[in-house]
Amino acid sequence: MSVEPRTRIELVRAPRGWRRARGLFVRMGAFALVELQKLRHDNTELFTRLVQPALWLLIFGQTFSRLRVIDTGDVSYLAFLAPGIIAQSAMFISIFYGIQIIWDRDAGILAKLMVTPAPASALVTGKAFAAGIRSVVQVIGVVALAYLLRAGLTVNPLRILGAMGVVVLGSAFFACLSMMLAGLVRHRDRMMGIGQAITMPLFFASNALYPVDVMPGWLRWLSAVNPLSYEVNALRGLLIGTPTNGFLDVAVLIVAAVAGIAVASSLMRRLVH
To answer: How far apart are the first and last CA of the chain?
Structure first.
């Protein structure tokens, strides 16, 4: 009579503390890398997206610099405008990320990602910061064009790197805002319409084109609650040396990005079902 050996079962505990946090950051980086690798299939996108900010600077910026109808103090209007155009073009890249995640849902990719051990927050964070890294190209392109136009932007590499960090934070928030809306509307056509409907109000209700001092009272209130205004403030402080509360601006962007990640993550499973 033979006796079968007992099968030894070993329990593997889920990682905790630093190991858990490290695993989460690795997953975030993996999702961000996947998003950035999509550019290999259409690497002309980065250059075509520079056309719109270039037109804003070359046509709108130079024209209003000669008209001198907007008082920007000791700073030329072209230099005043350049940080606003950087923030605007980065927002335009990020605000349609919701459409991309709906495409992933329709292709069955999102459902596969949601059943992996990675939490929804890792997916959202990876996509959000991938949008920010894409937007860094806008900083480089607009700053280079501003140099050619002799707008008077800084040449300090540390300040330019700081501006890139600010753009990453701002783009992360607007990408999360787009994914939040995608989780609510769940359809590409609706998402396209909503994205187009909110981009220009966000842009014009900020201080990207004109100082807060020249705004009517109701528009000042909208500008004060618009994260784009804080992004523009931080960029102006870094690129043209405008006096601003940089710590407040960056803190608002960080809080907005974290809140956007939390809300978009909670809506992600609704998008799949």
So the answer is: 54
CA dihedral sign of residues 230, 54, 35, 111? positive
The low-confidence residues of the chain, meaning pLDDT below 70, are 1-46, 273
pTM, whole model, 2 decimals?
0.83
CB atoms within 10 A of CB 50: 17
pLDDT in tens, 18-49: 565 565 566 666 656 666 666 666 666 667 77
Tens of pLDDT, residue by residue over 104-145, are 787 777 777 777 777 788 888 888 888 888 888 778 888 888
Phi and psi angles of residue 44, each rounded to the nearest 5 degrees, phi first: -75, -15
Contact by Cβ (8 Å): 101, 264: no
Burial of 183 (0-12, 13-18, 19+ CB in 10 A): buried
Amino acid 251: pLDDT: 95
One DSSP character per residue, 163-229 reads: HHHHHHHHHHHHHHHHHHHHHHH--HHHHHHHHHHHHHHHHHTTTSSS-GGGS-HHHHHHHHT-HHH
Give the CA distances from residue 16 to residues 11, 20, 21, 22, in Å, rounded to whole numbers and listed in that order: 15, 5, 8, 10
Dist CA 247 CA 237 (whole Å): 11
Q: And the tokens for 48? A: 């075509």
DSSP state of 58: I
Residue type, 217: G
Q: What is the pLDDT of residue 246?
A: 84
CA 240/CA 164 separation, integer angstroms: 14
Give DSSP secondary structure letters for 130-158: HHHHHHHHHHHHHHHHHHHTT------HH
